[in-house]
Structures are given as structure tokens and as C-alpha cells.
């Protein structure tokens, strides 16, 4: 089946609490510190921040988003390895969706987004348990924007990340506060793109059968 239609058909299905749909992605983040302390705001004067800054390394953000519930989880990790991804998914299975029979994951085709990674990280019995809880739905090449979590990452960037955050502990506190506030609102993405739209507008993302 065409990967694009597979993802769009999944979005079109009614919610199933036993098989929640969960969109997952990650992005790097550059930690940035101040060289000079900002000058506090005063009446009629906004906070002043010097143009100089100091790069303090990078870290990674894993983000999940459930279209069914308007719920998201964000995890800050030092790296973006298969091991980090496997532990993030394990937390989704065991901590965030413990009552689900299966998670229907929407991801891109990154080489760490595969069932095999669980066998590289966990003992075989545990890896098998986790893999049996997952149903994979991959976006097509050049079609990662079909993953709804991409929109959630854009919101996270605008509302939380587009400023100087000096270390991973500060970043973690800020994204946790953002996550809690947005989950309390049950904020959802108004997804309108359907399979019929894809068939008329995005022929380039269909397999070449010639």
C-alpha cells in the first residue's frame, strides 16, 4: 500500500481507546548561554539582551502527539540514538498508554525507527513484548510533513524554544511546563488533508510503477 494513503487512512479512522494513534518524531536543539547578563525590564523598557551568546552543546527532543486525545509527551535526551528512541517508546507503552492493546505509531523512515532496535537495546523477551505492542505506519520519503507531530514541534518551537536556554536541565523544565499547559487544554491539530486530496494533488509521492 502507498505509505501516504496508509497514514491518511489511519488518521481518518474513528478513535479506538484500545489502539491509540501516536505520532512520534525528534529534533536536535542547540543550547545557548548568555555572555553578559540580561538587563531586567523596567517601566517603559523591555528586557535587554546582548547580541553575544555562547554555544553550550546540543541535545535532543523526542516528541509524541496523540490526535485522539490532544495529548503530547516531550523527553529531553543527550543524544538521538536507537537506544534513546527505544527507551522513549517503552515509556509511551508502559507509562503513558499502559491500558492500550497496541500503539499505532506514525514515524518517518529514520534507521532507528525500526522494530529491530528494540532487540539491540533490550533482552529478547522484553523486546518481543514491546514490539508486539506496536503497529508501525511510515510516512513516505519527502513526506514527513504528513506526520502530525511535525505541526506540534512547530508549536513547541514558537511557544517555548525560540530563545536562549543554557543547559538541558533548564530546557527540561521549560518543555515540561509547556507540555503540561498544552495537555491541560487538550489542544488538537485540525487535520483536513484526506486521501482524496492526496490522489489529486500529490502524485509525486506515490510509488513509480512504470
Summarize the structure in words.
The chain has helices at 3-12, 82-96, 116-121, 124-131, 149-161, 168-184, 195-201; strands at 21-34, 53-66, 71-77, 103-107, 134-138. With 210 residues, it is α/β, with parallel strands linked by helices. The chain has a single domain, classed as 2-Layer Sandwich (Nucleotidyltransferase, domain 5), CATH 3.30.420.10. Helix 5 crosses helix 6 (168-184). It is globular. The chain starts with a helix and ends in a 9-residue tail after the last helix. The mean pLDDT is 89.
List keywords for this structure.
single chain; alpha/beta; Nucleotidyltransferase, domain 5; five-stranded mixed β-sheet; 7 helices; 36% helix; globular
Task: Record the SSE blueprint.
Elements: H1 3-12, E1 21-34, E2 53-66, E3 71-77, H2 82-96, E4 103-107, H3 116-121, H4 124-131, E5 134-138, H5 149-161, H6 168-184, H7 195-201
Parallel strand pairs: 1-4, 4-5
Antiparallel strand pairs: 1-2, 2-3
Average the pLDDT over all residues and give the rounded result.
89
Give the structural class.
alpha/beta
- CATH architecture label: 2-Layer Sandwich
- Major sheet: size, sense and barrel closure? 5 strands, mixed
What number of structural domains do the residues give? 1
Distance between the termini: 16 Å
CATH topology: Nucleotidyltransferase, domain 5
- Give the helix tally: 7
Low-confidence stretches: none
What's the alpha carbon Rg, rounded to whole Å?
Answer: 19 Å
Trace the largest sheet across and list its strands.
3-2-1-4-5
Secondary-structure element sequence?
HEEEHEHHEHHH
